[in-house]
Design brief:
Number of helices: 15
Radius of gyration: 23 Å
Largest sheet: 7 strands, mixed
Low-confidence stretches: 369-381
């Protein structure tokens, strides 16, 4: 007999929803799993009552068609997503299940998703989590989404696949995965001490001895943020929260006796220290501070092959394996990642030192199929001058523009007085991308 599964779908809207919620609920209700062994759980944390009524109506429509679907909503957003997931796990019908699949509202699994993933958990009792790969339906929407695709393909292909095959550990991505409920309970369940609740649960489960498996050949449709404002808010959370979690769990990992020394070293040095903190700080400090300053001090010799050529070659090889179709965008990707490095570095220090915005949660808005359905965007509502002024202020980022001016000055100095090395060429290219980032020119128009 097939095991009982809860399919949890997390939803949040602060205004009238785009049609993406219909796509996600519809995909969940079309899963090829016995109805009596599957519960679709829609966890709605939306702040607008009209939105809640719309989503509840959609759930009722599927329920009338014989689907075992439940709608759960909260009056408050305590704990944000972790709070909603914790409430969902406390329901009596979930306690009767063995596994829980977790998806965000912009994800759409294929009908055979459970049949391809559940067997790995059934036949390996030491396995606590199965994570699948994300496939981006709007990767071609604009340059911003293409560059994000390159970064995330690298994340899945190298970070998660290596962590899974070599150490049985990686960070749960928060969507597109299936947990063994016993593993979640053994780890203490959901906790909102950090906004990286998915990674937090992963670390705690790993420290209890549970293994994780990444399945790269199973892909689920998802959506990338296509506006720079949404992308910046996402990046703040993705880099601030892991840094905060690293500070919180470092000692716990170090003294843990249930995992091997090899796995602990991987979690501390590779997973957290290099990939979540120092690696991104290094990009900013080296390419926006150290490398430019060498132009002012000719006695400081920095080899071009080590500073520029080698990183480009390594990036090209990674792109060739991860996203070969975007090989021609290598230079764009390098310059864009450097332009974003200041925001990421700032977020990392906010997390490490637990500054005021450490637990700030701004939901990353997605468009769904609104790109093809203009009725979802209320373009007829007139914008007042105050609204326009606020929007303009949000688009102008003074730190990025300040760094661009600094690099422009350095580049000009190198052009007129430089002797041997031509780093100023790179400086001028980086000025262009920093200026575009400073005026929020990447991506589509904010929703």
């Amino acid at each position: 007999m097939l095991p009982s599964v809860t399919f949890g779908l997390s939803v949040f809207y602060s205004r009238s929803p785009f049609l993406v919620y219909k796509l996600s609920i519809g995909a969940a209700c079309k899963l090829s799993w016995p109805t009596d062994r599957l519960i679709i759980q829609v966890l709605d944390d939306s702040s607008d009552q009209t939105t809640k009524d719309i989503i509840e109506k959609e759930c009722t429509r599927w329920e009338n068609e014989g689907i075992n679907i439940t709608y759960q909503a909260r009056d408050t957003r305590e704990g944000y997503k972790a709070g909603a997931l914790k409430m969902g796990m406390e329901q009596d019908y979930v306690k009767q299940c063995e596994y829980v699949a977790l998806f965000d509202v912009d994800f759409q699994p294929e009908p055979d998703f459970l049949r391809r993933t559940i067997p790995f958990l059934v036949h390996n009792p030491e396995l606590g989590l199965v994570q699948t790969r994300w496939r981006f339906v709007n990767a071609d929407a604009c340059l911003l989404t293409r560059l994000q695709e390159m970064s995330l393909d690298f994340h899945f292909k190298f970070e998660q696949e290596v962590g899974s095959s070599g150490y049985g550990f990686f960070g749960f991505n928060g969507s597109g995965g299936i947990w063994r409920i016993n593993a979640m309970n053994d780890a203490g369940g959901w906790d909102w001490r950090t906004t990286a609740e998915d990674m937090d649960l992963s670390v705690r489960a790993a420290l209890q001895g549970w293994e994780f498996l990444y399945l790269g050949d199973i892909q689920v449709k998802s959506e990338l943020p296509s506006s720079i404002k949404a992308y910046r808010s996402q990046q703040h959370r993705w880099f601030c929260a892991p840094a905060n979690l690293f500070r919180t769990t470092l000692f716990q990992i170090a003294i843990n006796k249930k995992v091997s020394l090899k796995k602990k070293l991987y979690m501390i040095l590779s997973f957290f220290f290099v990939r979540k903190t120092v690696g991104h700080v290094f990009v900013f400090l080296f390419y926006c501070v150290v490398l430019p300053l060498t132009i002012l001090f000719p006695e400081v010799v920095l080899r071009k092959d080590g500073a520029i050529v080698a990183p480009c070659i390594i990036t090209a090889l990674n792109t060739l394996i991860g996203t070969p179709r975007s090989l021609y965008l290598i230079l764009h990707w390098i310059l864009f990642e450097t332009a974003m490095s200041f925001r990421r570095t700032k977020a990392i220090f906010v997390g490490l030192f637990r500054a005021k915005s450490v637990n700030e949660w701004v939901v990353t808005e997605k468009r769904g199929d609104s790109l093809n359905n203009k009725t979802n965007i209320d373009s007829t509502t007139p914008k007042h001058n105050a609204v326009r002024a606020k929007a303009l202020k949000e688009r102008i980022l003074l730190p990025e523009l300040g760094i661009a001016v600094f690099l422009l000055a350095i580049g000009c100095y190198g052009f007129f007085y430089g002797k041997e090395y031509y780093y100023y060429v790179y400086m001028f290219l980086q000025v262009i991308f920093l200026t575009l980032a400073g005026f929020s020119c990447f991506g589509l128009k904010n929703m």
